[in-house]
Structure formats: C-alpha cells, structure tokens
Design goal:
This protein is an all-alpha fold. About 80% of the residues lie in helices and about 0% in strands.
C-alpha cells in the first residue's frame, strides 16, 4: 500500500475511484438500512417515534461527526488506505452486531459504533480523489464518488425490501455486516495509495507536511463563502436527514404500503434520481466553474429552490403513486447540490488540509442535520399524534421544509465571495 508513482495511469485512477465508490455504496447501505427497516424495528422493540428518531439519527450522527475530525487529521498525515480499511472493518462489525441488539440501549450502542467507523471514509476518500485527479476533473470524479449515496440508498431499499420480510430485520443486518467484511479485505488487498500533491497547481501544494486541525479551521473561517455555505448545508442536512429517515415510515403509515412495496419504490426512485443528480451536478459544476467560479454556489441555490415545492407535493399528495412520482424530482435536483460544494472545498484548502476540511464540513452538516433532523421530526410526530393520528408524521415532515428557503438565501449570498476566497486560498 505504498504510494504509487507520479503520474498515476489514467485507467488505474478510474479503477481506484470505482473501488472507493463501491466501499462508499456499502457504507451508505449500512447507514440507511435502518431507515428502511425502522417500522419493523420500532414495533419489535416497542419504541416511540422519538426513540426511533434517536436511533436512526442522533445515536449515529454524534459519533460520526465528532470522530470525523480527529480521524481526518490522521488521514492528512498517514496512509489513507489503511485508515479506510480499519474503519470499514469497524462499521461492518457494528452493522452485524446491530442485528443482535436486544433493546433500545444495545441498538444505540451499535449505531454509535457504526458512526465511529463510517466517520473515516469520506474525508479520506476525498483526500485520495484530490491526489488521483487534476483540479479540472475533480468535480466529475467527486460526482461519481458521491453517486454512491443514491446507489447505496437504492440498494438499501432493495435489500431491505426483499430480505426484511423473508429473513427479518436482524438477519438482514448480520448478512450486510458479513458482506462488508469481505469488501474490506478486497480493498486492503487491491487499493494503491497515490502520492500527495503531484496533480495540484503549485499554489495549492502544501508549504509544509502537516497542518493542525486548528490551522485548517482558521483557514476555512477566513473565507467568507464558508461563513454562508456551511450553515446553509447544515439546514439542508437537517431537512434531508429527516426526509431520508422518515419518508419510508410515512409511506407505510399514510399510504399503507407494505414493507417490500415501500422499500423497492423508495430505493429505486432514490437511486435513479440521486445518481443523475450527483453525476450531473459534478459535470455541470466543472463546466460552469471554468467560466465563473460563483457557479459552485449558484448550482446549489437554484437546485434547492426547485426542489422545495416538489417536496411539499410529496407529503401533500392524496395517493401513493403521485407522492412517489413527485419524489423523483427532489432526488435529482436535491442531490445535485452536494458535488459543487465538495469540489469548492477541494479548491479552497491546501492539499494536506483536505481530509480535515471535509471532516469539519461533515461535522457541521451532520451534527446539526443528521443529529437533530430525525429526532426533531420524531418528537413532533409524537406530539401531533393525538390530533392527526397516523398522519402526524406527514405534518411533522412538512413543518421542517421552510428551512430550505433560508438555505437558498445563504447559498446565494455565498456566491459573491467565491472568487475572492479562491484568491485567498492561493496566497
């Protein structure tokens, strides 16, 4: 796993990206399978919506975010390949142990373990992508890597939809953990660590070998665009995590879908729509940013604005077919906002800051977003249940949608500062 020679061959780079994509897809399956199986888990363990929201959101998010920064600091100093191998083994083991949970506390502990393991992947992978691809190709490469999110979400739906009813939620978790362990061994045996910084412009190469976490955070805080798009994405994360966690249960309760019907529907729509959005967002970001770097923030603002009315339609529709059909649009435009932001972060920081910078970004959006979103909607659903009955979840989800409007405004404000911040980053 020693660094590969300078000028990594074109074909080898894409194979390595494909392997990172596969590991990330498994990461997302292990993260989101609980959303698909949340109703049977809730009924089996006799949980309230608030408790289920804690398990699906905060229990995972608190350790995912807090451990992400120190693990990323290791990725900026040591072998990212070894870190991903260790982290993948940990989250796969904890996924299997989730299937053996006997109650609320034991499942919370295993979800925390999954969060710790998964915290090390994306910062390390983004750092690797920065060393595998030139700046002009990174948007496309990040888009392909990030498309593992919708693909993993689709697989979680299909796996949960077919294995959940036939084998039960416990065996589904155990089998996923075992498959993850096998993939971990393959990654460890095959992946080649690229040398750092060889494909960067001279201005982006590090002046020294190591930057502390504090130095990286200060570097980000000096840039005005970060002061707007970090909180914007925290709001997006809050709404998005609530939607990802509770939409499966919403279809089962309000539209009386079976587990298999719901899982295959949500999984297919999320996978196709999300993949189009991720890859399309990367390609569009690369092309438009060559003419005007403000496009890194204009794309998220416009895409999110287009998604807002469609999300309202999903939860106000009177039948399952219309609700599911409307979900495709938000999956396309909503996921397209991720890639331009990550591509911008790659350009805003020095090479040896990348992993920590991505981890800080994930800390902000996941601690506030993934941590609070599912829990807040679960608590709202419990509070509204005496009035709305099984439709309480519908109105709890609708109540968080206006937060996206504030995020749109913040992205639009951030666009004014991208050019000057990129000048600062090259000083």
């Amino acid at each position: 796993m020693s660094p590969s020679p300078a000028g990594t061959e074109h074909r080898s780079r894409w194979w390595m990206l494909g392997l990172l994509f596969t590991v990330y897809a498994f990461n997302i399956v292990d993260r989101h399978i609980i959303n698909i199986l949340l109703e049977p888990i809730r009924l089996d363990l006799d949980l309230s919506d608030s408790q289920a929201g804690f398990l699906a959101g905060f229990a995972f998010a608190i350790f995912y975010t807090l451990m992400g920064v120190p693990i990323a600091a290791l990725a900026d100093r040591y072998s990212r390949t070894r870190l991903i191998t260790l982290c993948s083994a940990l989250w796969s083991a904890m996924t299997a142990l989730t299937g053996m949970a006997t109650g609320y506390v034991s499942m919370a502990l295993t979800r925390m373990g999954v969060g710790i393991g998964e915290a090390g992947l994306t910062p390390s992978a983004n750092s690797l992508i920065g060393d595998l691809f030139r700046p002009t190709d990174r948007g496309k490469a990040i888009g392909i890597y990030q498309s593992a999110v919708p693909v993993g979400t689709m697989l979680a739906g299909l796996i949960g939809g077919f294995l959940g009813p036939s084998l039960g939620w416990r065996m589904t978790f155990i089998l996923l953990g075992a498959a993850g362990m096998a993939l971990t061994l393959l990654f460890w045996a095959v992946f080649r660590e690229p040398a750092r910084g060889l494909l960067d412009d001279a201005s982006s190469r590090p002046e020294k070998n190591r930057y502390s976490i504090i130095e990286t955070v200060r570097h980000l805080l000096r840039q005005k665009s970060c002061q707007y798009f970090f909180p914007a994405f925290a709001l997006v994360g809050l709404v998005g995590s609530a939607v990802n966690t509770w939409t499966p249960a919403y279809f089962m309760r309000s539209h009386e879908m079976s587990l298999m019907h719901m899982a295959t529907t949500i999984g297919t729509i999320g996978g196709i729509g999300g993949a189009v959005g991720m890859v399309g967002g990367g390609i569009i970001a690369d092309r438009l940013a060559r003419r005007d770097v403000a496009a890194y923030m204009q794309i998220p603002a416009i895409a999110l604005l287009a998604a807002i009315p469609l999300f309202f339609g999903v939860y106000l529709a009177g039948n399952a077919a219309l609700s599911a059909g409307l979900l495709l649009g938000p999956m396309i435009v909503g996921t397209a906002i991720v890639v331009p932001v990550l591509a911008l972060i790659q350009r805003l920081v020095k090479n040896n800051m990348r992993a920590v910078a991505v981890a800080v970004f994930l800390l902000v959006i996941h601690l506030l977003g993934m941590g609070l979103g599912p829990l807040a909607v679960g608590m709202l659903s419990d509070a509204l249940e005496p009035v709305f009955g099984t439709d309480s979840l519908r109105y709890a989800l609708l109540s968080v949608m206006p937060l996206n409007l504030l995020a749109v405004w913040l992205f639009w404000r951030a666009r004014r500062h991208v050019a000057s911040d990129l000048g600062l980053a090259s000083m």
